[in-house]
Amino acid sequence: MTRVFDEDLGAGFGTRAVHAGQRPEPLAGAIMTPVYLTSTYVQEELGRNKGYEYARGKNPTREALERNVAALEGGRHGFAFSSGMGCVDSLMKLFRGCDHVVCGENVYGGTFRLFDKILRHYGMEFTFVDTRELELIGRAVKKNTRAVLVETPSNPLMRVTDIRAAADIAHQHGAILIVDNTFASPVFQRPFELGADVVFHSTTKYLNGHSDMIGGIALVKDDAIAERLQFIVNAAGAIPGPFDAWLALRGTKTLHLRMRQHDITGRAIARWLVDQLGAESVMYVGLPSHPQHELAKRQMSGFGGMISIELGTRDRAAHVLKRVRVFSLAESLGGVESLISHPATMTHASVPADDRAKLGITDGLVRLSCGVEDTEDLRADLEQALQGLPAAKREAGSGKRGAAVLR
Ligand SMILES: Cc1ncc(COP(=O)(O)O)c(C=O)c1O
Question: Which helix (H) or strand (E) holds 226?
């Protein structure tokens, strides 16, 4: 299994982002880790090799990425996967058919779909709760609970879970805490420092940052969990190809710089949107009006570029989605380019309509991923897109928050 280089851990975040896990290549001294396009490795003699046997188990490009992100998160081991979902699926293989997981009720729709539509059929049990309410986590725990999984801030409602408190609850019951840190990235949130046992990412998003690959990564501190996960990686094989691993590794070199800009723009656009739509209609963890802003300030060092806005009706959402010019209508987030999406019909379409309505993922909800273009161009784009918004009338399923924009 891939372990961080201990000597990388003393450096500052930016230095780790650029160098951790990477050493000049021994043949020519290439400063960039080569893309090791190989499926197997020649063995010197029976039972003697250079530590590599077959590339499903290990690949040097992938190892560099795993060491790099493990160093950024403050974990000890890293495991890269072919997608964020491949990562979650492999993490669930740490458990057995009779085990129970407490999961945040507002997580990425694909995570919910994997648990609800596939893993349940193998006998695993899942209870979905509002993890903002700590007593609901405690109440959901059962004798067979093995893990609590939280996504914070959550996609797309920007809910914040108290990581330290969730870790304490999980540990009191002999379970582990798994944190999806995709939205915050290790630049702004370090779940291991707050007690998490496993941290994971869709590397497709901020870690890669350039919207040119799909991947996932899990970071682990505990050697026993890491050994089991290495077994799963090799046995189940949800690994990324070396070129995708290399693209993600190139992305992490500038993660700290990109996140700084996402954060500057996120804050500015969120404040401007409050003036246009009212504070109740803008969900951004960096706004003082966000119900959990104080908690966000405690456990995050920045707030990034993810904003959701409630426009009240599907027509009003469609109006904005059609008129944007700099933002592009597309699934995904975290890239250098700004994206805009409609969670109810895109990322969270697999969540049943009733559940979506209860959660507040309404037909009027629009999610923005602010990229690193000029802030002023993004603001101007939204300004022209909001012009001529159809008159607000309440639509079925537009939820409580929707009422706020019906001014
Ligand atoms: C928060 C979060 N976690 C996990 C995933 C799944 O990642 P992937 O699309 O790389 O499989 C996503 C995808 O949008 C996500 O937003």
Answer: helix 223-236
Mean pLDDT within 332-352: 96
DSSP one-letter code for 48: B
pLDDT for the residue numbered 407? 35
pLDDT per residue as tens digits for the range 251-277: 999 999 999 999 999 999 999 999 999
- How do strand 306-310 and strand 365-369 relate by DSSP bridges? antiparallel
Question: What number of H helices and E strands is found in the chain?
Answer: 15, 13
Average pLDDT of the chain to the nearest whole number = 95
Distance CA 13, CA 73 (A): 10
CA distance 101 to 228: 18
Size of the chain, expressed as the number of residues it contains: 407
Tokens matching residue 331:
């699934």
Q: Taking a C-beta distance cutoff of 8 angstroms, is the pair 217, 208 a contact?
A: no
Q: Using one digit for the tens of pLDDT, what is the confidence trace for 360-376? A: 999 999 999 999 999 99
Q: How far apart are CA 16 and CA 4, in angstroms?
A: 11
State in Å: Cα 296 to ligand 1 middle. 21
Residue 354 Cα to ligand 1 midpoint, Å, equals 22
Pocket of ligand 1 (CB under 6 A): 83-85, 108, 110-111, 151, 155, 180, 182-183, 202, 204, 214, 216, 347
Give the β-pairing of 145-151 and 176-180: parallel
Query: How far apart, in Å, do the first and last CA atoms of the chain sit?
Result: 57
